[in-house]
């Protein structure tokens, strides 16, 4: 029952712990042993083949999920993809290339700007409209041509957690389906991706097991006023989401930057009072990230690094390292979100804020 906190002190923590289960529910009936079951997009999935462009529109945490999807869609399906916040999209003239899919992301399906963007898009020349949404009875679902439900169950904590990771799961399903229908994925590659997806609930469960260790780290944030999150590639939107979570519930000012932009401004803010948080990817960007982190360390910044053992990070002076499980690269944005959710949760508890009902914020922004 979603309205029962059970053994948990806050809904947010309960919802973080529910993620293995709800990600499994999001995958249920959508994958076979070796491919995506395209019937999950409705009876007629022919539109997948016709897509030549994608416009993603969303707000808040859902917007960050869209930013991750851009990396997946362009990488796997070789299709141009733009991502925009709904409040900007709805008030400008948008150029729409032929055969563009209009894709909205929303936990509630009631966000005023996202709905207005959809209504505008329906008057324009899109191929079709698809909503990835958590609430089956929502206005967004009713008004979109197609829907892929995230199946996360009711989310009560204002800071979105399980809705985000299930959106990412649904977006990865969508990206693989489009890539495959467009002939961009070999059967073998599709099978490998689907096999990775099957392991996702177990990986997320393993990441949650770091809870106690992350709780200890959170104590270091009790007196901080600022924090800087760094990421590269699809870990950049995860850094943005980590910074959003921290500011929403702990009221610590937090910013996120693509690590490569460090020298273009944020480095000026770094001194011994500034914590820098990063989730390390295990790919060719790792060395570049490490050299960015050295620059931060050289200026006295205190590093908080989450990464798999394979990344080679270790605990050292000024470096707080927390191990998270190794996962296939494609899944890193989903699994690496977990330590940042736990970090912001525990920091908020240390600071004594109202975790589930942060000041000035609403679960769903239904008026402009
Ligand atoms: C509010 C919520 C956020 C959410 C955003 C978009 O700001 O507090 O958690 O990400 O709205 O909501 P949606 O329901 O459209 O995903």
From TrEMBL:
Residues annotated as catalytic: 363 (for fru-6p isomerization activity)
Membrane-spanning regions, if any?
none
Q: What is its EC number?
A: 2.6.1.16
Molecular function terms from GO: carbohydrate derivative binding; glutamine-fructose-6-phosphate transaminase (isomerizing) activity
Keywords (alphabetical) are: Aminotransferase, Cytoplasm, Glutamine amidotransferase, Repeat, Transferase
Catalysed reactions, as listed in the record = D-fructose 6-phosphate + L-glutamine = D-glucosamine 6-phosphate + L-glutamate
> Residue limits of the SIS domain?
43-184, 217-358
Choose one Gene Ontology CC annotation of this protein and give it: cytosol
User: Its biological function?
Assistant: Catalyzes the first step in hexosamine metabolism, converting fructose-6P into glucosamine-6P using glutamine as a nitrogen source.
Listed name of the protein = Glutamine--fructose-6-phosphate aminotransferase [isomerizing]
Instruction: Give the shown range, full length included.
Output: 242 to 609 of 609
